[in-house]
Amino acid sequence: MENLGALAILLAFCAAIYAALASLVGRLKNKPFLIVSAHRAVYAVWALVTLAAAVLVHAMMTGDFRFAYVAEHSNHAMPTLYKFAAWWGGQEGSLLFWSWLLATYATVVTFSNRRKHRDMMPYVTAVLMVIQTFFLILNNFIANPFRMLANSEGQVIAAGVVPDGNGLNPLLQYPAMAIHPPMLYLGYVGFAVPFAFAVGSLITRQPGDGWIHTTRRWTLVTWLFQSCGIMLGAAWAYHVLGWGGYWAWDPVENASLLPWLSGTAFLHSVMMQEKKGMMKVWNIVLVSSTFFLCILGTFLTRSGVVQSVHAFSRSEIGKYFVSFLAIGIAATVYLILDRLDYLKSESQLESVVSRESSFLFNNLILLASCFAVLWGTLFPVISEYATGDKISLDADWYNRLMVPIGLFLLFLTGVGPLFAWRRTSLESLRRNFQYPGIAALVLIAVLIAAGMRNFYALISFGFCLFVALTVMVEFYKGGHSIASKNDMSLVRAMIELTHRNTRRYGGYLVHMGIVLMFIGFTGHAFNQSEVKELNNGDRMRVGNYDLKMIDLKQGENELYAWHRATIAVSKNGQSLGILEPEKRFYIASKQGTSEIGIRQRPNEDLYLNFGGMSDDNQRAVIQAYVFPLVSWIWVGGLVLIGGTLICLVPSKIKMQYARTEVVGYTKTHATVQK
Amino acid sequence: MGKYGKFAALIAIVVGTVVWLAAAGMKENKTYYKTISELGQMGNQAYGQRLRVGGDIEAGSIHRVGQEVQFVLVQDKLRLKVAYNGRDPLPDTFKDGAQALADGKLDTDGVFRTKQIQAKCASKYEAKPGQFTPTAASGKGSV
C-alpha cells in the first residue's frame, strides 16, 4: 500500500511539471493540442494526489501503524472523526493536504475555464502547476508521508515499533479544532488562484479587468474560509485552553492574520479598479502580497524560525520555503515593473471626502496593521541579525498598536460607504452623518456620566453606534423607498433591496458583523477575575456572582484521571444553577486538559476554570472570570459569514458604470492625416 | 498645498502615529530571548533584566511550594532553577520533558523568577525524520 502511495505522489510530481511546461510551450508556440494535454495532466495530478491521500487516510482509519506518520499521530482509542482529522495533524500529512487542495482548486479552475480566456489561461495553469510542483517536491523528497517503520511482511525497519500509536493530543480532539486547519488551508491555498490570474493578465499585457471579474467570487470564498478558520481558532482557544482569552498575538496566530489583512484590503481596492479604473498596479501588488503572505504563513508555522507555542523546533523545511518565496517574489516584481505601462490609472484622486479617498485610507490602515503584525512577528529574527540578540515583542505591544488602528478602521467603515465618488458635497455629509454622529456623542456622554472612564472603550462604543446607525439608515431608506412604490412590507422591501444589489447590502451586513465583534472586543476592557483555593462549602465572589463549592470529586477511567468541582452560582440571592469545571489528566499522552464551566449570556460570560489541586491536595484552585460582552464576538462572526454569503448571490440588477476603458496601446505616435 | 497635499498630510499623520505607537511600545514591551547557555554567558548583566529563557522541563523537577511552582529547565547539560508565581494556572502542556519558555527575571540567588510560562503546543509540526519514540507515552494505558 505504501508503495502505491509513494508512487502516486512521484507520478503526480512528474505530471505537474509536464502540465506547467506543456501549458507554456503550447501557448508560446501556438499548439492547442499541447494546451489540451496540459489540462489532462492537471486532472491527472488531482487523481494521483487523491489516490495518495486515500492511501494515507485508509492507513489512519485502519490503524496501520507500520506507517510512521500513522504511529505518530493516531491510535486505536481515538474516535473515527479524529482518526480522519489526523490526516492534517502533523507535518507530512498536512503538506499532502495542501497539495491535494491545490490540485482540487487547479482542476476546478482549469475545467471551468477550458473554453474561456484562451489568451490567459495557459499561463494561469502554468503558474498553478509551478506552485503545485513546489509542494510535491516537499511531499516527495523532504517530508514524505509514506515513511515506514515496518514493511508489508512486518519486518521492522526502525526500532521500537508498537502495536498502537501516540494518538492525537487530547487538546485537539474537539470538533472545532478538527475543522480549523481545513478551513485555514482552504483559505491559504485559495489565494493561489487569483494570484495565478493576476500573473496571467500581466504576462498577456491585458489592460482590462478580466482577471478581477473572473476571480471576484473565488477571492470572496477564499477570504470567507480564512475568516472562518481564524474565528474557529479563537473559539477553540477560548473554550478549550482555559486561560479565558481568544487571541494572544502568538506568531502562528499572526501568520493566519497577515494574509487576511491584505486580503481584506484587496477586496476593497478592487472596487476602485472596477468602478474607476484606478489602483491597477496596486491591486496586482496586493494580490501577489496576499499569496506570498499565505506561503509565509505556511512557512512560519512549520520551520521553527520564530519561537511560538505552536512550533518550537527548527526544521530543515524552512530553507525550501524561503527559496520559493524569494524566487516567486523576484519574478513577480520583475513582471510588474516590466508591464507598468499597461497599468496606468484611468482616474485620479480629487477630494479627501470621496469614496476613493476612503478606500485609500482603508488600504493604508489595513496594510499598516499588516506590516506592524509582520514586524512584530519577525522581530526576533530581525533583531538577531541586527544586534545579535533575539528580542521578542509581547501581546501588549500588539494591542497598543492594533487597538487605535482598529478604531480608525471602524470609523472608516461608517463613513466610507456614504462618501460619494469623486467628491462628497457638504450637504450630503451633513445629511448622512449628522444624526449618527450626534447619537454617538450622546452615547459617550451617557457612558461617562455612568462612570466609564476607559478612553478607548468610550471611543469604541461611540464608533460602534455611529457605524451601526449609518448601516441601519441605509437599509431603512432603501427599503422604505421600495416598500412605498410596491406596496410591500418594510421587511420584504429590505430583502428585495438586498437582492437587487447583493454586493452592496451584503457588504453592509459584513460591516455590521465587524461592529458586533468590536463590541465584543471592547468588553475586554472590563474583564474581572479572581483566584481562590476552595474547600467544600467555601465561597468566593467575582463580579456580581456568588460562587459556592458544594462538591469536589475525583475519579479515573480508561482514558484519563479527573477532578471535578461542583459550584453553585447565585446572584443577589437568586440561584443561577450549577457549573462543574473539571481537570483531566490523559494517561496515554500524559497531557492535562481543563473542561471549563461556562455560563454564556449576551451581557457577559461567567467562566470557571479548575486550575488544579492545592499543594496539600485538599482544596481546588478555582479561577473565576467575568467576561463582559464576549459573546458578541461569536455572533458578529456569524453575521460576517452571513453577509459574505449574501455577497456571493448574484444581484437581480446588474450595475453598469460608464467608464472609459483602455482597450490597447500602440508604441508609435498617431499622426494626423491631412 | 498642491493637489495631493491634503492626502500627503493625512497619510503622514496616520503613518506617523502608527510608527510612534510602535516605537514607544518597543521600549516598554520587549524581552530578550536567551538560551540557558547564553544566560550563563551574560554574567552580571543577566540580573534584573527582563528575559525569556527556553529549555526542556527536567523530569520530576516540578514542585509546588506555597503559592509558587518550582521546576528546573535543562538545555544540554545546563540546568536553570525557575520559580513561577503568576496568577494563572500553568498551561496544560506544562509537564515533564515538555519544552517551555519562561518570561521573567534572573534573581540574585540564581533562581529565575517568572510570572509567565508558555509550554509547547499540542500540534506536532516539527519534522523529526525517522524518529518515533515509543518510550514517550506510547500504547500503555490505551486499548
Label this structure with key terms.
heterodimer; A: 674 residues; alpha+beta; Tick-borne Encephalitis virus Glycoprotein, domain 1; 3 domains; six-stranded antiparallel sheet; four-stranded antiparallel sheet; 19 helices; B: 143 residues; OB fold (Dihydrolipoamide Acetyltransferase, E2P); five-stranded mixed β-barrel; 7 strands; elongated; disordered C terminus
Name the average pLDDT of chain B: 74
Query: How many separate helices of chain B?
Result: 2
What proportion strand of chain B?
Answer: 25-35%
Give the beta-strand count of chain B.
7
Q: Can you offer a commentary on this structure?
A:
Chain A folds into 3 domains: about 1-345 and about 355-400, no CATH class; about 415-525 and about 640-650, no CATH class; about 525-630, Tick-borne Encephalitis virus Glycoprotein, domain 1 (Sandwich), CATH 2.60.98. Chain A is built from 19 helices and 11 strands. Chain A has helices at about 1-30, 30-60, 70-75, 80-85, 90-110, 120-140, 175-190, 190-205, 210-240, 250-275, 280-305, 315-340, 355-385, 395-415, 425-450, 455-485, 490-500, 500-525, 630-650, and strands spanning about 390-395, 530-535, 540, 545-555, 560-570, 575-580, 580-585, 590-595, 595-600, 605-615, 620-630. In chain A, strands 3, 4, 5, 6, 7 and 8 form a 6-stranded antiparallel sheet that branches. In chain A, strand 3 and strand 4 (about 545-555) form a beta hairpin. In chain A, helix 1 (about 1-30) runs antiparallel to helix 6 (about 120-140), helix 5 packs across helix 7 and helix 13 (about 355-385) runs antiparallel to helix 14 (about 395-415). Chain B has 2 domains: about 1-30; about 30-120, OB fold (Dihydrolipoamide Acetyltransferase, E2P) (Beta Barrel), CATH 2.40.50. In chain B, a hairpin with a 2-residue loop joins strand 3 and strand 4. With about 140 residues, chain B is α+β, with helices and mostly antiparallel strands. The chains are: A alpha+beta (about 675), B alpha+beta (about 140). Chains A and B meet through helix 3, helix 5, helix 13, strand 1 and helix 14 of A and helix 1, strand 1 and strand 6 of B.
